[in-house]
Amino acid sequence: MHYISTRGHNANQTFSQILLGGLAADGGLYLPSKYPKITPAQLDAWRGLSYADLAFEVLSLYCDDIPKEDLKALVQKTYTAQVYCNGRADDRAEDITPIHWLGDEQGTRLGLLSLSNGPTLAFKDMAMQLLGNLFEYTLNKQGQELNILGATSGDTGSAAEYAMRGKKGVRVFMLSPNGKMSPFQVAQMYSLQDENIYNIAIDGVFDDAQDIVKGVSNDHAYKARHKIGTVNSINWARVVAQVVYYFQGYLLATKTSHEKVSFCVPSGNFGNVCAGHIARMMGLPIEKLVVATNENDVLDEFFKTGIYRARKSAETFHTTSPSMDISKASNFERFVYDLVGQDAARTAQMFKDVETKGGFDLSNDPAYKDIAKYGFVSGKSTHANRLDTIRDIHAKYSVLIDTHTADGVKVARENLQKDIPMLVLETALPIKFAETIEEAIGRAPDRPASFVGIEDKPQRVTVMPADLNQVKDFVAKHTGL
Ligand SMILES: Cc1ncc(COP(=O)(O)O)c(C=O)c1O
Ligand SMILES: N[C@@H](CCOP(=O)(O)O)C(=O)O
């Protein structure tokens, strides 16, 4: 597999080098130079595989430098019903990401692809648990250590910390937006007392934290000296691990590989739906990829107008689907690269324009005019919409969904097509956002036993301004390198 950067840097890196390196040296994001193609016959041959075996088939197309038997052992260790049954009380745990069909709406089946039954109750666990095992395996082999610098708006942080706690040779420095996550999310992260975990609450929004992560990665000398890695979806390994559940969702929803399925994805950093885009480019018969945003509607605006206008921190709303409070979607660069015909120089210029001019305008560009061929459509949801949707889904189907999934269901319902099943990606469990659930239905959601009293545990966090140099100093002091 040959990997290249969206901005043109061609470093001849293997999968394992990209895994450890994160962001490309030119500030772009890594992608394979060609997506491997799956035929309907191959897809049919994958029907009935366990999730771990399916993950092996998909990942072995990309992880070229890990011996097959090692990759098999890694996915089997990762994708077990025991790890992915948290909070769920049904008998389909073996599917790892089972579909919860809600019912028939407008002549088609509407379902939830359950992605949030891992250790931290959000879809991030699907890829992050694998990353934890991949990092351990790769570092062990190379006799190296890694200092992970991450940014979170609430879920990546805890998923990464739970996946890396106690892992030899790995430290996690996680930047979170001070005061902008739910109390449950805060408690999940800040109550961890493991020596290799450092929580840093910055005075800013997720985008400020992500800018700092990129700023550190772009200081090549610092990055090399302090052995900095990433776990956000800027890391290719995160995205490719997320591709697997689109295949699983498709296979569970269909009987033959000539059928089509649509997916609706609550979106912020565009990592989740980017994985769907890659699955579609590989040949998975996806009809529509529906991008659902909250009040931070940069992506919806782009798909509707062709204009990408990243918002400043002060223009980013603090909403009741806080994990999607993102106005500068990193992975959007991976899609734009494909959209403009894999023109790296142009992509580099456009994302330079995001930094210097605040965005770019493709509204009159042939690439945007042809965007329908990628299957993307979009919509937006507000606080009032999510309350209504949570209430309605609860009343109609006796199912409780979280605020982000509610944004997805709201927008999915606006994009249903007769006879094409629509799967909404369930990106978190309701307990993570209990206050809003209570506002919607008048009672708090159920709480898995392992999280009882989590908010009362002592918390460990360092608060600092959103300042690149202060973060660098903090990391340097604790790596001792
Ligand atoms: C619960 C939840 N839903 C949706 C999203 C948005 O996903 P993405 O950033 O991959 O677009 C996130 C964060 O990423 C999340 O934590
Ligand atoms: N929503 C995420 C932030 C985006 O993270 P990524 O790791 O998927 O890029 C969060 O909850 O932290």
Automatic annotation (TrEMBL):
Pathway: Amino-acid biosynthesis; L-threonine biosynthesis; L-threonine from L-aspartate: step 5/5. Coiled coil: none annotated. GO terms for biological process: threonine biosynthetic process. Residues 100-340 form the Tryptophan synthase beta chain-like PALP domain. Its EC number is 4.2.3.1. It catalyses: O-phospho-L-homoserine + H2O = L-threonine + phosphate. It is an enzyme of class 4 (lyase). CDD domains: Thr-synth_2 (cd01560). The modification N6-(pyridoxal phosphate)lysine is found at K124. Keywords: Amino-acid biosynthesis, Lyase, Pyridoxal phosphate, Threonine biosynthesis. PROSITE patterns: DEHYDRATASE_SER_THR (PS00165). It holds the Pfam family PALP. GO terms for molecular function: pyridoxal phosphate binding; threonine synthase activity. Residues 2-79 form the Threonine synthase N-terminal domain. This is Threonine synthase. It comes from Polynucleobacter victoriensis.
